[in-house]
Amino acid sequence: MQFESFSAFLDMGGYGFYVWLSYGVSLALLITLLVGSKISNRNTREQIARQIKREQKLKLAAKQQAQQEVTNES
């Protein structure tokens, strides 16, 4: 379908408002999905990093406690 002018293209035979509104809503939803996914991914990575640090601290504390028990027994 060819249009006589750019304004005729934007008008789309009287349906331009609905066509461009649907494009706008679709684009907004896709951007929201992309941003939400990036935020969720970042939060998940931060949680994993915190969990790893927590586990390392627990292992270190257990190791130190075991060493302390060995020195107390001697």
UniProtKB/TrEMBL annotation:
It comes from the Bacteria. Belongs to the CcmD/CycX/HelD family. This is Heme exporter protein D. GO terms for cellular component: plasma membrane. It comes from Thalassotalea algicola. It is found in: Cell inner membrane. GO terms for biological process: cytochrome c biosynthetic process; cytochrome complex assembly; heme transport. Keywords: Cell inner membrane, Cell membrane, Cytochrome c-type biogenesis, Membrane, Transmembrane, Transmembrane helix, Transport.
